[in-house]
What we know:
The complex is a heterodimer. Chain A is an all-alpha fold. Chain A has eleven helices and two strands, in the order ααααααααββααα. Chain A is globular and about 65 Å long. Chain B has four domains: 11-74; 93-204, no CATH class; 234-348, no CATH class; 364-522, no CATH class. Chain B is 49% helix and 10% strand. Chain A binds chain B through residues 5, 7-8, 103, 107-108, 111, 116, 119, 123, 126-127, 130-131, 134, 136-138, 140-142, 259-260, 262-264, 266-267, 270-271, 273-274, 277, and chain B through 394-395, 397-398, 400-402, 504-507, 509-511, 514-515, 517-518, 521-522, 529, 531, 534-537.
Amino acid sequence: MLRISKYQLFCLMVLFQFGTTALFVLGAKANQDAWFVIILAMAAGLVLNVIYTELYKQYPNDTLVEIIIKVLGKGLGTPLAFLVIFYFIHIAAHNIAEFSYIIQSTFLPRTPFIVVAGIFVLAAGYILFLGVEVFGRTSEVMLPIVVVFVLSVYVLVYISGAADLGELQPVLASDWRTLLKALPQVENAPFGETVVFLMYFCYADDKQAVQKVALGAVFMTGVLLVIGTITIIATLGIAYATIAAVPFLSVLQAINISDILTNLDSLGVSIISIGGLYKMATVYFAGISGMATLLNFKQKKWLLIPVGLFILWLAVSMPSFTFQRFLGQEVSTPYIHIMFQSMPVLLLCICILKKLVTPV
Amino acid sequence: MTTNNHSDPLYPDHEWLATNKSAVQQLNALLEYAQQVEVFSKKADAAFRAGQWLKMLNSLKEEYQALEQQQYLLNPVYLTYANGIKQALSKEAAVNVNGLKAIFAQCSDLIIREFNLGATEQIPAALVMIEGMVDRGAINESILKPLLFTKYNGDINGTLAFIKANVLSVANIKEIRTVREVVDEVLAGNAILIIDKSDIALVSEVKGWESRSVEEPDTEAVVRGPREGFVETIRTNTALLRRKIKNPNLKIEALKVGEKTQTAICIAYIKGIVDERIVQELKKRLDKIEIDAVLESGYIENLIEDAPFSLFPTVGNSEKPDNVSAKLLEGRVAVFVDGTPFVLMVPYLFVEAFQVSEDYYSRPYYTTFIRWLRWFAFFTSTVLPALYVAITTYHQELLPQALLTSIATAQEGTPFPAVVEALLMQIIYEILREAGVRLPRPVGSAVSIVGALVIGEAAVTAGLVGAPMVVIVGGTAISSFLIPALSDVNALLRIMLIIMAGFSGIYGIILGFILTIIHQCSLRSFGVPYMSPLAPINVSDLKDVFVRFPWWAMRTRPRVLGGQNPLREKAGQKPKAQTNNN
């Protein structure tokens, strides 16, 4: 039986949430108060994660797909489960496309897109081929690397004097409506997506600690993101931060310590791509393990190849980075994410109702 | 029927022999077989003469196959009687001696000293040994001299007991009864006494051969710490270990591996500290080995390691008793192999490559600093050339202006692209290193001078390579000497990363780096994750990874090894300064 320790679960969850979002300014619609939106979103994320883990507690040995079928029955559950799996695969493809575009545009402009994305899929496939346990173990090594690197970038920016906290003024000038308008997107992008971990919770060796770990991971991500957003806005100013393609990159370019440490952008992006790789691998595996359950596959490993190719095809067929961002912000957020991330809430309600109706 | 293809014809141990022990039955079966062969050949002959052999071909073939099968079954019996090896010893000394002479035909190093016991009794006897494997002095003084000059009284059975009890002045004496045992003991370097009218032979342990004395090994040099190293004799090695750990719980189990070489192997562990499952697993893997020869512990390492297709070693080795003792006390198991000073240790973890025995003898502060240097050096020596290639090919903007200008000037006019240049220099460096190891010592210095001149000064002046590349390769080489345990892994990883950097710059390096870490995380050594205590993380074991806590703070043994008794010392060992109130 494969097992993930609670620390590994924590690392996976933080990497999943923080790895990709560190690149962008979240909640940019609220201008200078983006950091406050993140705090609000984190609070909402905590609530959502309480719900997810409560649902998990009802079915401590089942993945999300199995829970859906158990709660809704085969007739209604199977198509919904397929949609969920497709949702995961879609996140994977979206994520790969985003990262491949960034890498291609920063330092491999002449390399074909499919090569960069293909190497990404191959690397993720290799981790998953070695199994969930290895996946968890490697995350223990990768999380410190990513976090230490990102934090040292922030420190270096302040040391080189490029950041000006005055850019954050006026503090909390936006009214509640603006804040609330910016909220759903932040809520969905890193925090709500943890719904995918409903596919992982059942591997946890310490069932009691899962809720604590999930909430801790969300909190840690929130704190890191607040620091990151403040730094990005302080460095670039809100006007540039909202229009920059990859704000974190511009922050890296702003680092200049006596002309020796400069132009760290390519190094930075490639380290940050660890986060992208892990996010991608997390959803990739969730999709595969869900499929294996639905199709009654004993050997998950064989699904890695077709699903990997499908993800690659999806990623390659997305037209451009700008379209990517547009798709992510304007389509996914209001329609797709909301649907799938609130589904566990419904599932939990049905489950509790069922228990009330048929007392054990 | 089990296949006995690689069983030695000298030592036939066949289940047929085991199930039919009676010699009469064996001989009868042999005779029956001979008669059947005769009948068959007559029949075939007749059929052939009558011109009917085509018709009878099938039945003849079947009969022949049955006979062949029978011959296969009887072969060990035949060999037994032909060589007389499994046989019990004969009561007549002459028969035994002649048998041994037949078995050891063409072995010029066998000595059979035939003599008569006692000055007056004249009982024929023989002493058998192999020249060079026994201690001549002990043979002459403690065995032959007393045997020749003692008075014996009549009865033969009494003589043997009398000799054992009163005559031979040798520490270890054994009685044996079969020819096979005699052969084994002779080959092990003991002297065997065969006496007429007795079917028991006496083994006196007088092993004594030329061997290197205990000296400081070249591989694990220390400034502070014991200088002694293992030698090629297994008993000397286990004794060196026993001298460090004077405890009956230090178990040293012996077994033999190698059908032709019969190499002695010892498994050493400390009962009560070690995780028994590791010992069981090791024994299981050693038992499975069926190989003709074991000449060095590397043979065993290859046959028992967890990840045969990995670059990373999952079995450790050491040449120093203090190092092996420390590992045993942490809960590891050691494998001694006769004929080599290199002792294997399992489980072997990645972090062990960064721990040196001297770390534990010097004070913790400098040790911690050196540990960091080792991690840094490992990282640099794998990544630096690749990083140089990536930066000069793809990411020139990463360098400060001044540095970029000087590198560009130096690289100007060199004929190769950076990646080819880096690979070329790496290969030349590896060639020089290998030459330095293999060449006879006097030539070695010449090579290093020529190497330094050729790849250093001359190559740069001739415009073949850029000076920065020489600096990078030199720095990398020196860095890799800090972690000798991983130097071969290091060289291969370096070349892999250079190629990846040549293809896709820093992106390639990072991917290669990630894949390496993932691969390392997937390895296990005898059930213990190879990257532990880093992944899965074990906070209590981190006291001996990036830092080295003082001894009073390292209260527990590494927990990842799963030992039974994790506590190493009592609490409150921290020394306190005493104030004199005057």
